[in-house]
Amino acid sequence: MRAKIHLEGALKQALDNFGWPWPEKAVIEPPKDSSFGDMSANVAMMLAKEAKKAPRAVAEDIKGALAGDPLIEKIEIAGPGFLNFTFAPAFWRETVGVILDQGEAYGCSTMGNGTRVQVEYVSANPTGPLHIGHGRGAALGDSLTRILEKAGYDVQAEYYINDAGRQMLILGGSILYRARQVAGQDPAEPEDYYKGEYITDIARDLMAERPDLLDLPEPEAVEACKVYGKDIILQGIKDDLAAFHVRHDVWFSEQSLVDDGKVDETFADLTASGMGYAADGAFWFKSTELGDDKDRVLRKSNGDTTYFASDIAYHDNKFKRGFDLVIDIWGADHHGYVPRMMAACEALGKPGGLSVILVNLVNLLRDGQPIAMSTRAGQFETLKDVVDEVGSDAARFMFLSRKSDSKLDFDLELVKQKSMDNPVYYVQYAHARIRSLDRKAEEAGVKAAAVGPESLAQLDTEWDLELLKLLDQYPDYVEAAAKAQSPHLISMYLQELASTLHRYYTNCHVLSAEPGVASARLMLLDCVAGVVAGGLGLLGVNAPESM
């Protein structure tokens, strides 16, 4: 981050002195091959036409203009006119002062500029406990919320409660069926119902609370079961997410859209904009005008609204609450629904206002053997069971170790291993190892140095510089993760930082080094510990003091 900022400022000053504009397509980034230097810029090639010179000639002019910068050690011209820059060790050593001065704020940026963003995630039907697939979406949404806030966005996390529609009637019927069995009756098995043991538990509890349940007319009994079951299951979902350290600021009810007239309000908006119309006794969304293969019905001729109608009304409500961007996290099986929802947001006057992140399947394994999961059949590993067995930290880190649209194998036995082959243990151990060293240093009477020319000068090995350069990249990774809406970038960075730290220990003595060197290295390692803790915090994972 600092390297890019410094270089961009120096280049802009040089171009201004030459009377050349800053190219719109200028790119400043680390070269793919680190042997080429610390940063590379294409500005010379972008300016060739404006300067009326060959790109390499422009590059030579720029190189000469920056030759006196004391923080740039070497400038080389490569290929057709790329400029490769190597910064002086003194530049990288300044990173220590920046990190220690900013503390927990290190890595914060103003990239988001206060943009209001809503992240909606999990939103599982309140018809059963959360399973491991929901856990991956929960970890992703919660971590993304943390990252966006770190990058300067104003973020609200939301859970959409699907408490209206057919699945809720099925829940009510399932509980009533089990209640009749609990009462010793032999009811006919429903064609479609939820079969998990939790349904029987809910039925038994409801029977104790409502002894008259089975005396009620069928519709009233189903409604009583539905409401009671929804409330019990939803509270269980909230408890499970709290144990998983997942935050939701708003719990939004689908039923409230109907009760508050928001669906009809959205239909009126679509009609006014020419994107909604009545035909054949139904109400339609004119989605063909936005690239769909056919128009979509929102209200059927019998008066029932479709799922799509509620979804459009819900997103209309989001935008009317003042969000500039809404991010939905969905299961990968909903990929075909994305273009339709994008078209709906465009019809609502918010083109580009919706971003959808797809979360692929989690293959849950135990010692390499798959565990079958099906909510309806009652065969699934709940998120609570997984968290109870492996811990929230291990589960969250594994969920965030790969891009969300990639399939993920999650072996319960593997993630419990306390070995360097376990990525979460590997990263957490990096933090614990430094804190253990701090305790040993205190016992030995060795203190971390204060930032100053003499102490920074002690950080003069290639291993010191390797760590310093990586620490400087942390703010870049935060911004990249926010921009790409990809928390796994933070996970990748932390694994690289942990690997670099463990390599540092192999090559550099700390407490056994000369006093001045030992104190300087403790100072550097305190910076590493702070960045590891901060990065883990963005993933919702703890940074232990000991392991």
Task: Describe this entry's structure for a reader.
- Helix 2 (43-51) packs across helix 3 (55-66) and helix 6 packs across helix 7.
- Strands 7-6-5-11-12 form a five-stranded parallel beta sheet, sandwiched between helices. Strands 1-2-4-3 form a four-stranded antiparallel beta sheet. It has a three-stranded antiparallel beta sheet with strand order 8-9-10.
- It is 51% helix and 13% strand.
- The chain is flat and about 90 Å long.
- Among the domains are: 2-87, Gyrase A, domain 2 (2-Layer Sandwich); 420-539, Isoleucyl-tRNA Synthetase, Domain 1, CATH 1.10.730.10.
- It has helices at 2-18, 43-51, 55-66, 89-102, 132-150, 166-182, 197-209, 218-243, 254-259, 262-272, 307-320, 338-347, 383-390, 392-399, 423-444, 453-457, 462-472, 474-484, 488-507, 515-538; strands at residues 28-29, 39-41, 72-78, 82-87, 116-120, 154-161, 250-253, 276-279, 282-285, 296-299, 325-331, 354-359, 362-366, 369-370, 408-411.
- The chain is of the alpha/beta class and 547 residues long.
- The chain has 20 helices and 15 strands.
- Helix 12 links the parallel strand 11 and strand 12.
